[in-house]
Fold Dephospho-CoA kinase.
Amino acid sequence: MKPWILGLTGGIGSGKSAAAEHFASLGIHMVDADHAARWVVEPGRPALARIVERFGDALLLPDGQLNRAALRERIFKAEDERRWLEQLLHPLIGQEIASNLAQAQSPYAILVSPLLVESGQHRMTQRVLVVDTPEHLQLERTMRRDQVSEEQVRSILKAQALRDDRLKHADDVLLNDGDLGHLHQQVERLHQFYLGLRGGQP
């Protein structure tokens, strides 16, 4: 039977990566949308050629890889450039995710994406799990992990889907306000529940 797809999302510093890793350690096939976004612009892939054609060689690093920082800078200031890039990349990222999910051998597979709701990627899934964390913990964890200022974290939080929007799309919510052991217990409980679902629905 074809595995059903669980969408896993959460704001920055919510612990969604730690949750995803634990699902993976239980034998669940996992696809990370961020990785797919990186693969589609690897050297030799058509998307990179199109980006260079539009923005010039200045966006390449000496080894031929895409200079992400330069690209971010470029589209940050220009709405139409950002839209052009999204129209180029979103379908390719979608294809990359779909072909990777199609390789899943586990009873269900997971699509991890910080922008699951905003990007419309939730439409590729049968069920959505949101890892939710009180904002003060998100701030603390992200500042500690990325060595960035509170101001920077707040601006990232603002750009991501509002917590309420994310929660509106959730079929399940994992409240991550304890330690890693507590997170793992909740993942294992959900995993047992998911194994009993057909097509992601009880």
About this structure: The mean pLDDT is 89.
